[in-house]
């Protein structure tokens, strides 16, 4: 069974076996990452949480590969402060259970100077969780750590704490460090989110260095603020294809990060900015997100945006991507796809949807959503074909949705709620 299948089925026991027994360090690293990502799904009745934590602690201490050890520490972070402290306690030999937060912060600060980099990484991660102001100075000093893995976790911790006074030190690393560290530094600046942190990212988004521009536009998507929209829209015109695609992913991510009270304003701003950019720079990256992304929020927003920015030469490609998304496992994503399709009438869409509805081999959910769209865009052709379809279909749900579509088209039908 592949790692993808183990992740999809939340096979904790098998994933622990892979982490402990695989001879391939890349496979062990990925197993640790998956175990971390599945934290919210663990159930002691299926596999004890404590056993997963123990396996990750062991990997953090003993694995032969430094990247596997780093991934295991990050996974422990996802299991919470207690899991991290299990590793830190074993490594440092200090008892920190039940200790007051300020005292615990002092113990972890001491771990920042430990000989073993894994303990320094875990200490920095734990300090980011605690967020005590009195540990800011030792954390900032660790931005100069000799191990880039430590510097990455220190930057992440500073972003979690969100202290504005860290911005100058982080900015220095943004210009001078390895690529992986720079990414974490940019994320930290975005998480801090002050005006000076934003200015640094905006400045870097216009840098001569393509990799720096990509890092900046990637991080700006985490801000969830309207201030980042114009910068990201401008990056859609970047000479680098990588930067352009990253900018589109960031715009979609920004929609996910936007606070509820600003979401509508940000959506309008993004649509307005995208209308001024050529379809080549906008539509294909959105289609790619629907085809490739596994992030639910990204797929939802890509489906929503496609109906508002695709036309002319890219209309048919957008329709194809949205039709495939009608059967998405996420109900909101499939609803957004249906709504967007109703905005993209043309390019023989009616015939394609009717063919989908009448194809008994296709997913029923996709056919239900297709009927919803036909209820909005259908013509006399739809009325005629759907009248016969509702008599033939053996599915009560499809029949009900078909009658609803007919009623909206002026034919005989009965009312029902959207997507019933």
Automatic annotation (TrEMBL):
<dbReference type="Pfam" id="PF13646">
    <property type="entry name" value="HEAT_2"/>
</dbReference>
<dbReference type="GO" id="GO:0016829">
    <property type="term" value="F:lyase activity"/>
</dbReference>
<dbReference type="Pfam" id="PF03130">
    <property type="entry name" value="HEAT_PBS"/>
</dbReference>
<dbReference type="GO" id="GO:0016491">
    <property type="term" value="F:oxidoreductase activity"/>
</dbReference>
<dbReference type="InterPro" id="IPR016024">
    <property type="entry name" value="ARM-type_fold"/>
</dbReference>
<dbReference type="InterPro" id="IPR011989">
    <property type="entry name" value="ARM-like"/>
</dbReference>
<protein>
    <submittedName>
        <fullName>Molecular chaperone</fullName>
    </submittedName>
</protein>
<dbReference type="InterPro" id="IPR004155">
    <property type="entry name" value="PBS_lyase_HEAT"/>
</dbReference>
<keyword id="KW-0456">Lyase</keyword>
């Amino acid at each position: 069974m592949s790692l993808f299948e183990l992740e999809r089925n939340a096979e904790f026991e098998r994933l622990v076996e892979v982490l402990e027994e695989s001879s391939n360090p890349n496979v062990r690293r990925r197993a640790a990452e998956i175990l971390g990502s599945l934290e919210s799904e663990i159930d002691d009745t299926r596999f004890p949480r404590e056993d997963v934590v123990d396996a990750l602690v062991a990997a953090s201490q003993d694995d032969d590969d430094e990247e596997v050890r780093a991934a295991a520490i990050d996974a422990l972070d996802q299991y919470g402060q207690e899991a991290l402290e299990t590793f830190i306690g074993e490594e440092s030999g200090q008892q920190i259970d039940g200790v007051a937060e300020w005292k615990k912060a002092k113990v972890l600060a001491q771990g920042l100077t430990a000989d073993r980099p894994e303990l320094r990484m875990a200490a920095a991660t734990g300090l980011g969780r605690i967020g005590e102001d009195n540990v800011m100075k030792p954390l900032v000093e660790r931005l100069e750590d000799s191990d880039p893995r430590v510097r990455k976790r220190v930057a992440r911790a500073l972003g979690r704490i969100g202290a504005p006074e860290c911005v100058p030190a982080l900015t220095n690393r943004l210009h001078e460090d390895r690529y992986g560290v720079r990414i974490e530094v940019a994320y930290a600046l975005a998480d801090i989110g002050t005006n000076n942190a934003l200015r640094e990212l905006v400045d870097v988004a216009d840098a001569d260095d393509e990799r720096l521009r990509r890092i900046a536009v990637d991080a700006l998507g985490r801000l969830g603020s309207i201030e980042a929209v114009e910068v990201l829209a401008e990056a859609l015109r970047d000479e680098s294809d990588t930067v352009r695609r990253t900018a589109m992913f960031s715009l979609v991510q920004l929609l996910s990060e936007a606070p509820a009270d600003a979401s509508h304003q940000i959506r309008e701003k993004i649509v307005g900015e995208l209308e001024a950019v050529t379809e080549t720079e906008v539509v294909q990256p959105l289609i790619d997100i629907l085809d490739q992304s596994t992030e639910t929020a990204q797929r939802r927003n890509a489906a929503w945006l496609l109906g508002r920015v695709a036309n002319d030469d890219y209309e048919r490609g957008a329709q194809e991507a949205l039709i495939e998304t009608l059967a998405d496992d996420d109900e909101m994503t499939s609803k957004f796809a249906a709504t967007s399709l109703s905005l993209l009438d043309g390019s023989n869409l009616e015939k394609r949807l009717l063919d989908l509805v009448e194809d008994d081999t296709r997913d029923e959910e996709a056919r239900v959503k297709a009927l919803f769209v036909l209820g909005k865009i259908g013509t006399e052709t739809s009325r005629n074909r759907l009248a016969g379809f509702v008599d033939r279909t053996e599915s009560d749900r499809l029949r009900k949705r078909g009658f609803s579509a007919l009623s909206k088209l002026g034919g005989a039908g009965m009312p029902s709620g959207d997507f019933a």
